[in-house]
Write a structure and sequence with these properties.
By secondary structure, the chain is an alpha+beta fold. The protein has helices at 33-40, 68-73, 78-84, 123-135; strands at 2-3, 6-7, 10-13, 16-20, 25-28, 52-55, 60-64, 86-88, 91-100, 103-112, 115-119, 141-147, 155-161, 167-172. The strands form two sheets. Strands 3, 4, 5, 6, 7, 8, 9, 10, 11, 12, 13 and 14 form a twelve-stranded mixed beta sheet that branches. Strands 1-2 form a two-stranded antiparallel sheet.
Length: 185
């Protein structure tokens, strides 16, 4: 499959489609823990690590939180979010996460027209979480990624990072339509 991130290998096994992510890049975020908690509507003790921009094909701000409860309680403040999670003009994005017993609870926020919206399932951000793990020396690992619970649209992805730091993001696809194209000719 070819997308903006380049050519991304896709495999399928037992109904799970897995994409291979690019090697990660990291850059510092100009955002303190105190600013991150204010942006997310949380207490400073809810932020486990300093925010970082991670890129395995689509750069996003990642913020590790101290608990699953904090992930589910986050309520981004739109003006702070637009300013503090700014990737480039017109694009503010943040992925928050917490992992326990190889199950990560995650949420992905983006700003659109002054409102902060939430994505129920984000493969690119899951790949960046794998990149964060590679850069933190946490390989190998296999995690179940749970997203969408806070907006009643549960989604499950699977993250793997092998001992060589290769990142895989998988999930099941549900066919919701099919059809045929007929070209004149």
């Amino acid at each position: 499959m070819e997308i903006r991130a380049g050519v991304i290998p896709v495999t399928q096994a037992d109904g799970v489609y897995t994409l291979s992510a690019n090697p990660p890049k990291r850059r510092a975020a100009d955002l303190s823990r105190a600013d991150a908690d204010a942006m997310l509507g949380l207490a400073e003790t809810d932020i486990a690590d300093g925010p970082a921009w991670i890129d395995t094909g689509s750069e996003q701000l990642l913020i590790r939180l101290a608990s699953r409860t904090a992930v589910l309680a986050a309520l981004p403040e739109p003006m702070r979010f637009k300013r503090d999670a700014l990737l480039r003009p017109g694009r503010s994005v943040a992925y928050i996460w917490y992992v326990e017993n190889d199950v990560a609870t995650v949420r992905m926020f983006t700003e659109r027209h002054g409102a902060v919206i939430e994505d129920p399932g984000t493969g690119s951000a899951c790949a960046n979480l794998g990149g964060w793990c590679v850069l933190a020396g946490l390989a190998p690992l296999t995690w179940r990624i749970e997203q969408g619970e806070a907006i009643d649209r549960p989604n499950v992805l699977y993250l793997t990072v092998d001992e060589d730091g290769r990142i895989g993001v998988g999930g099941r696809a549900i066919n919701i339509a099919d059809g045929q194209f007929h070209l004149p000719g």
